[in-house]
Amino acid sequence: MESSEAAVGQKLTPAAEEPGTAGRGRPLSADSLFHGVCVSMAGLVGVALVAIVIAIAVDSLPAIRTFGVLGFLKSSEWDPVSEHFGAFPFIVGTLVSSAIAMVLAVPVSFGVAVFISELAPAWMRQPVSAAIEMLAAVPSIVYGLWGLLVFAPAFANLEPWINDHLGALPLVGALFQGPPMGIGMLTAGIVLAIMILPYITAIMRDVFVATPTRLKESAYAMGATTWEVARQILLPYTRTAVTGGIFLGLGRALGETMAVTFVIGNSNNLSASLLMPGASIPSVIANEFTEATSKLYVSSLIYLGLVLIAITLIVQVLAVLLLGSVRRGAVSSR
Amino acid sequence: MISLAAKRRAVNAVASALMFAATCVGLFFLAWILWTTLRFGIAAMHWDLFLKDTPAPGDGGYGLRNAFVGSVILMCIALLIGVPVGLMAGTWLAEYGGRSRRARLVRFVNDIMLSAPSIEIGLFTYAVMVDPLGHFSAFSGGVALAILMVPIIVRTTDEMLRLVGAEMREAAIALGAPMWKVVTNITWKAARAGILTGILISLARISGETAPLLFTALNNQYYSTSLARPIANLPVVIFQFAMSPYDNWQQMAWAGAFIAITFILLLSVTSRLILQKSVKRP
Amino acid sequence: MLKTTQMRLAALAVAATLGAGAQAAQTITGAGSTWVYPLVAKWSTVYAKNTGIQVNYQSIGSGGGIAQIKAGTVAFGASDKPLTPAELAQSNLIQFPTAIAGEDVVYNVPGIKPGELVLSGPVVADIFMGKVKSWNDPEIAHLNRGVKLPAMPITVVHRSDGSGTTFTFANYLSKVSPEWKTRIGADTSIAWPTGVGGKGNEGVASYVQRIKGAVGYVEYAYIIENHMAYARMLNSAGKVVSPSLAGFQAAAANVDFTKAEDFYVILTDQPGAASWPISGCTWQILRKSAPKATNASVTAFFRWGFEHGQDIARSIAFGPLPPSTIHAIEAYWKKNLGI
Hints:
With 282 residues, chain B is mainly α. Chain B has twelve helices and no strands. Helix content of chain B is 75%, strand content 0%.
C-alpha cells in the first residue's frame, strides 16, 4: 500500500533527481527537458505564492506599523471613521463558519463519494457525479443571493425549533439560542458546506474509483460489506488523497468572500450563539475594500488578508501534525 | 441474540442508507439552487440573451452576448496558462518530488494558495500587470483566473498520479522507456479521468469568480474581443445586475447564472465522453 | 509543452492586436461609484448611438474609482465621497458633480403605510444608535400624532458593505445629531452600535421586508422599484417633505457652488423649504496631467449628459443638476483644464 504513494520514479531514475547533472556534458535529452519543465512549473507555483505574500505584506505595512501584530489580532474594534482596526471578531467568524462547513460537508461528501463509486448502479454514476460537480459552477454571488432570498427565510422557520430543542441542551445549548432571523454563523456555515461539497466529493470519488479493483474485489470476495470495504479498504488506501480533497474544500471555505457576506449578518460583535450574526475576514474584505478611501483603511483590509494566509498556514501545520500522528498510530497498531 | 453476520448486515444497511441520503442532500440543494435561478430568471430566457449586448437600465429588453463571449475568452486564456503550469507542477510533485522536503514545501505552499481570497489574487495581478501597463485588459483577467486555477489543478494532479499503481511504471521502465514517456504515455493516461476532474472543477470555480476580475479585466458595457482592453464577463455582470434595482437586470442576472451553470455541466459531460471514447479502456 | 503554450499565447497576442486595430470605435474607460453606475451606463448607451464613442463605465466602488484615477488606469473615476481640495491639489486632480440622488429611511411596521411615518434627523440618529428601541417610543410618537404605533421592538438594518449611501446617511446624521458626530461620525463604512448588516441596497431591502419592526435606509430608486414603506422627513427648514427628484434638486439648488472650492459640498441637510435632507451626489474625478484629448473626450461626454441626458436621468430616479451648477462646472473646466 505504501508503494502507491509515489516516489517510485525517484527510485528508478536517479538521474532525473538532480536537474542540473543530467543536462551537463551530455546533449539535452527529452527526459531532462521534461523534468526541467516540471521542476520550473513547480518552482513557479512556489514563487507565485511568495510573490503574492510579499505584495500583500508590502501593502499592509502601514497598518502593521500602526497597530502592530498582537494589537491587531486582539482588538475587537473596527471603526473606519476613527481609523481603529482590529481583527479578532473576524478571525473567530472565519474559523467558526469554516468549521461548521467542514463538519457538515466532509461526512456528506464521503457518503456521496462511496455511493457513486460503490453503491450506485452503473447508469447512475456519471449523471450523479456530474450533477454534484455542478455545485462548483454556481457563481458565489448566486449562492449568496439564494442564501439571502430563499434559504434564509426557509431556515428562519426552522430556527424556533432549533431554539427549543438544541438550545435546551446542556453545554452546547448556548450555541443554538437567538432570534429567528435565518441569517448568522450557522447559515453561513451551511451555505459554505454546500459550496465545498463538490470539491471534496469529486476528489474522493475519483480516488475511490482509482483504488485498484483487486483490493476491493478481494475484500468483497471475503464477504465484506460495502461499508466495511469503504471503511477498511478505500479510506486507508486513499488517506492522503482524501486529506487533499478535504484541504481543497477547507481552502475554499476559508477564503470564500461573496456568498458568506450575504448570509453571515456582518456584525462585528462577538456572540456565543451560532444563530447570531458574525463576520469573517474575506467577507469584510469583500464588503469594504472597494469603497475604502483612506490609505490606512485599505492597508488594514489587506492586512486582514495577510492574517487569513497566516491562519491557513497554522491550520495546515496542525492538520499535517494531526495526520502524522494518525499515521504513526496506524503503523504501530499493525 | 443477534449473530455477527446479522449485525454486520444491519450496520451496512444503515450506512448504505446514510450514503444514499447524503447523495440526496447534495442533489436536493443543487435542484433547489437551479430552480431558484430558473424561477427568478425565466422572464429573461430569450434568444436575445445570446444575440444582444447588455442593455442600459430602464431600457427593457435582454442581452448578455458581450458577457458570454468575454467569459469564454477569459476562460480560454486561463486554461492555456493554468493547465500546463498546474499539470507540470503536479507531475513534478507526484513523479519526481515524491516525499522530498522540496516537494512537501511546494505542496504546503500550494495548499495555502488554495485559500487565498480571490480578491487578493486580483489585487496581486493588478499590481504586476494592470498598474505597470497602465490599463485594464482581458489578458490580465485571464492571468488572475489562471492563478486561481493552478493550485486546484496541482492538488488534484498530484493526488491522482500518486494513486497510479507502481507496477505500471515499473513495467514501462523495465522495457526501457524514458521517464518522460512513462509519465506522458502511462501515468497521465492512467490518471486522465482524475486530472480532467481537477481541470473541470477549477474551471467551474473560476467561471463564477467576480473579485479577481473587477481589478483586472474590469468589465465592458460593449462587445469587445480585444485582449488589450477591458472585456465584458459574466460574473461581474451578474454581480452588478443582481445588486441593481431594475427588474430586467435582476432577471438577466439569474438567467445568466442558470446558463453559466448549465454550460459548465455540458462542458463536463462532453469532455468526459470524449475522453472515454478517445482512449479505449485497457 | 511549454513551447506550444508560448506559441499559442503569441498567436493569441497577435490576434488580440489585430482585434484591437479592427475596432475603430473610440472608447473611454471610467470606473468607481456604484451609485452613479446606472446613470452613466444609460447615458453611455445613448451617447454611443449618437456619436459612436463608447464610454465604458464600471462600478468598482468609490474607493476603487479614486485609486484608479490616481494610478491613471482610467480616464475618469467616480466617488460618492468628495475629495478635499487639499487632496485634489496633492494628486493633481479635479472633481465635479454629476447628478443628484437621494435616499430614505424604510421600515416594516405592520399597519403603517408608505409615507405615513414622519421622522426627524435627531430621531433617526437615536434609532440607529439603538437609543430608541421601540416603535411606540415617545420620540417617534411625538412626530406622529394620530398614527397608531405598535409596541414593537426596532431592528436596525444597515449596509454591511462600504457604500456612498452609508457615507451620505451618516454625514446627515452627523450634521443633525452632535452625539452621532462624536460617537460614530461619517464614512463609507462605520462602526455601527447595533443592528444587522445587509449586503448592498438589495440586502438591506430584503432584510427590512422580512423582519417585522425593521428599519433601514436605501437609495430612492430601490424605494420606487420595490414599493417599500418610506418615511417622510422633517428638513432643516422645519417642513415635512417626501423623497422626490424635485426635493433632491432643491437641495442642490440651494448650494452656492461658485463659493465652494472644487465643489466640495455635501448635499445633506441643506436649507430650503422643499429640500430633501438626505440628498447625495457623485463626483467625477479627472487627472489634470492626463492628455488633453482624453480629458476633452470625457468632458464632452458629461457636457452632453448635462445638456441632453436630463430626461434619461429622471427616468431612472436621478435628479439632473440645476443649471446654475452646470454653469459653475463649465467655468471650472475652463479654468482647470482649459477645455
